[in-house]
Amino acid sequence: DQQVKQNSPSLSVQEGRISILNCDYTNSMFDYFLWYKKYPAEGPTFLISISSIKDKNEDGRFTVFLNKSAKHLSLHIVPSQPGDSAVYFCAASARRGGGSEKLVFGKGTKLTVNP
Amino acid sequence: EAGVAQSPRYKIIEKRQSVAFWCNPISGHATLYWYQQILGQGPKLLIQFQNNGVVDDSQLPKDRFSAERLKGVDSTLKIQPAKLEDSAVYLCASSLDRAVRAFFGQGTRLTVV
Fold first, then answer.
1. Angle, vertex CA B62, rays to CA A92 and CA A46, nearest 5
2. What is the pLDDT confidence band of residue B98, given thresholds at 50, 70 and 90?
3. How does pLDDT run across A40-60, given as a tens digit for each residue?
4. In A, which residues are within 8 Å of B45 by CB distance?
């Protein structure tokens, strides 16, 4: 049961243009969503997040949009740069009993930004 | 601030052998996670510790995998005996509070032949 889905395994964009990475989720209990970026041979690094009470969060060139009714979120990178080339993971979190929580990841989308 | 440290970076073993991975979390982080990332997949949580207690090990194959976190700091993950399908990158992460602020180590790439 894949609760977080990234249906595009790869995306190729020209430098300077917008990159849009999409993510869908099924569990309505998720209350926090994140994007992680991963370079080869490195661990994932946190990029940007959004709470379920918001519909947009912006940090520099990166903006995450959340559509709760559609259970969909997207990451926009404007303008895209070659250094943005990496695998991007969408992740979602829900509180569990006892105060702990679990972070569920999608399969990732490999972004290539061409000079 | 030092990051999450993991060792070894790479390991190649034959099936049915045993292997152990080590993780040193960021100082002061109470929560520690072990994730398994198979090629082409996202990271999957194997076990989560809060200090030295287990919070979630529902996806840990307990017949062959074990993990411990001594004194609420360092942690080891062991596989015994290994199977071919255990080939993956094993990621350790730690967080101060919510998993949403987890910091990942570089991972250990395990190849079982």
1. 25
2. low
3. 889 999 999 999 999 999 999
4. 102-104
